[in-house]
Amino acid sequence: MRFKSKFFFKFFILIFIIWIPLLLLPLILYGKCSHSGSPYCQLFSSPYFPDAADGGHGTNQQSENGFVRHGEMGEPVKFQPGREKEIERLFKINQFNLLASDLISVNRTLPDYRMSRCPKHLSQSYKLPSTSIVIVFHNEAWSTLIRTIWSIINRTPSSLLKEIILVDDASEKDFLGVRLDDYIKSINANIQLVRMHERSGLVKARLKGASIAKGDTLTFLDSHCECTEGWLEPLLFEIYKNRKTIASPMIDVVKDDTFQYVRGASNMWGAFSWTLTFKWYVLPEREMKRRNYDKSEPIRTPTIAGGLFSVDRAFFYEMGTYDEGMNVWGAENLEISFRTWMCGGQLLIVPCSHVGHVFRKKTPYTFPGGSDKVILNNNVRLAEVWLDEWKNFYYLVRPNAKSVSAGNLTSRLELRERLKCKSFRWYLINIFPESQFPLNYIFFGKVRNEQLK
């Protein structure tokens, strides 16, 4: 009897010695990773370890298990004094607060931002088309990329989500290699990962993803987004009603410094300046009146930001996809906007769909040949194909663009002819009469009073 008691006592001690360290290991790693910006520690920003312990350096809400839940319900991540240099150092990597992002769960909660007038059960009431979601990334931070993926999976009806297609545009970060492959395999969802062998830019990478898509529609998202409840159904509903629609969500702001989710203004639409730069402008009275002053109604926007939108897959190809002569990114959103309106389609911003996007003050990426050269090249292609005589106005505003070669435009000019597209004058009169581009002008230059010299 004494022998058995000793045996069970030793056995119990042995089990205790083995299991206690194993149980404590995740907590120890959590504590270390809460103070680190290394990609390795981002492993614990996953569905299996959703909440990082702050160790007294943050001021976000406390959860029931004792861990600090950073950024829940879209709240900002706040730091106590003393971590400014660490934040600044990590900020330079992706041009946003990487430390804040890494502390937020990849499954963080968000409020339902839909207005009360927005329908809640579109997928049950209508036979909506399916979608393939295409996400291009280049050296994206682990936490923002994975959070984008999980926000899609968690807030998209499985009946509508055909697949998620990730296109790696020649990333150089080790953690976006084999580790990402393994992580994706662990997720119970149809996710495909395509690798570009060399840096190709947004246009070519998106077209690569679209070429293997199987969904009825294509939905393009950036790699640092957060989809909210009911985000997809309103976009697909507009395409269901009119297949020649490009539908963009209301793009909310995820702040680059605190990752606070800020609901976007519902009285804005996309347009452009004299330099062919995309801008947000306040809705004119005529558009508010057309919508009967109902803020939940879709906005007929002159242009879209271009990062986030859904489109019928067949219509996308019928309309000529993207201009493959454009490099990296820049002006491709205006090109697809002008082409859609002038060639028989429509652009809508759908206020009942909300997707957050990390807006950065500058890009962390390099442009082959320099950003000015790339953007000028893209703008010149846009002007030569779609602006008609207003291209001369653009060259007056940007005289240095005259010396930029647009490359071969034959296929794009033939596309415009084949689609029987309307003129840019028609666009200015019917779609964007508020444009800064004058319908008629005699002279462009400065007016100066000689007596004030």
UniProtKB/TrEMBL annotation:
<keyword id="KW-0325">Glycoprotein</keyword>
<keyword id="KW-0472">Membrane</keyword>
<keyword id="KW-1015">Disulfide bond</keyword>
<keyword id="KW-0812">Transmembrane</keyword>
<dbReference type="Pfam" id="PF00535">
    <property type="entry name" value="Glycos_transf_2"/>
</dbReference>
<feature type="transmembrane region" description="Helical">
    <location>
        <begin position="7"/>
        <end position="31"/>
    </location>
</feature>
<comment type="similarity">
    <text>Belongs to the glycosyltransferase 2 family. GalNAc-T subfamily.</text>
</comment>
<dbReference type="GO" id="GO:0004653">
    <property type="term" value="F:polypeptide N-acetylgalactosaminyltransferase activity"/>
</dbReference>
<feature type="domain" description="Glycosyltransferase 2-like">
    <location>
        <begin position="132"/>
        <end position="314"/>
    </location>
</feature>
<keyword id="KW-0464">Manganese</keyword>
<dbReference type="InterPro" id="IPR045885">
    <property type="entry name" value="GalNAc-T"/>
</dbReference>
<dbReference type="GO" id="GO:0006493">
    <property type="term" value="P:protein O-linked glycosylation"/>
</dbReference>
<keyword id="KW-0735">Signal-anchor</keyword>
<dbReference type="GO" id="GO:0005794">
    <property type="term" value="C:Golgi apparatus"/>
</dbReference>
<dbReference type="InterPro" id="IPR001173">
    <property type="entry name" value="Glyco_trans_2-like"/>
</dbReference>
<dbReference type="InterPro" id="IPR029044">
    <property type="entry name" value="Nucleotide-diphossugar_trans"/>
</dbReference>
<protein>
    <recommendedName>
        <fullName>Glycosyltransferase 2-like domain-containing protein</fullName>
    </recommendedName>
</protein>
<keyword id="KW-1133">Transmembrane helix</keyword>
